[in-house]
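Example: Integrin, beta-like 1.
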Amino acid sequence: SQVGEVCRLSQESSLRRCRTPDGKICSGRGKCDCGICMCEATGPGKFYGPRCECHDWVCATHNGQIRGYCDCGMCECDEGWFGEACQFQEECSLSSKKSRELCKNQQGVVCSNRTCQCGSCVCDQNDDKGLVTGRVCECDDGECLDEDTGEVCGHGQCYCGNCYCAAGWHGDKCEFQCDINPWESKRKCTSPDGKICSNRTCVCGECTCHDVDPSGDWGDIHGDTCECDERNCHATYDRYTDDFCSHGQCNCGRCDCKDGWTGKKCEHPLSCSLSLDSSLKKCRGTSKLPCNGRQCVCGQCICHPPEESRIHGKNCECDDRQCEDMKGEVCGGESTNTNVH
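Written out as structure tokens, the predicted fold is:
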């Protein structure tokens, strides 16, 4: 249709004309306007074709490897080579073991359970529609695909399976428009130190605080602008008492001590005649750590856990468990391990 004209097609008919055989609207690279794909310029070149299926720049990005020719943005490979960049050789000079080693990720998984070919991962299997990428197939951009519309991150960009939305948009697929303008959103998300959500994510004027450290407790980072990071309290965690801020509570990343207690972990009683530094010095002895890393209270070491009698000494320097680890008897008895002296 011409600009300004009313489309005579139903939405269903319009989308059907724009849909590719694999179900994507305009190949995920443009917008459908009354059955016609309006391809979006992207990267260093552009997309073209009736359904934006062609691109004029991808072939040129394959490190200058000339093992085929470019047709509609796709590499047609010479005999003996295959892959989207003709980068895979059908006959491999590597051993099977060496090839698999080159295809492993940090966890030791080969190509994220896909195919390894001569030391390189083949990610674009038929059922993935070319959405799985990365050196070891670690990125699944299928997570960005809106199955209802066929669009990939409608108002944003997909990076390794995550949608990064343009200003003014939000949602898992960037499908929702904010009801405030980007400048107002930024103003609401600015913390007192001038940072946007303390370097986290601002969505329509509200901060999303937990996305930086998904492996941790999402409640650890909070506040209107994510200014409170309780993980600072966790940094003082005492693994022997199973506690942090032992005689106090964590308040916006700082231990606030109960009456009668002080110290970074609220571990030092004010009733103690020694200063905190003097107490720690007395507990240190010849070790670098006070009480060899266990609990120091007013210059006295508590070798936790209390029921563990094998850890003892003025500064918790004796650990009889080490003898048992060498399959001998506890020091003081008759050793059955000839390596124990």
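Helices lie at 11-18, 96-103, 182-189, 231-234, 276-284, 321-325.
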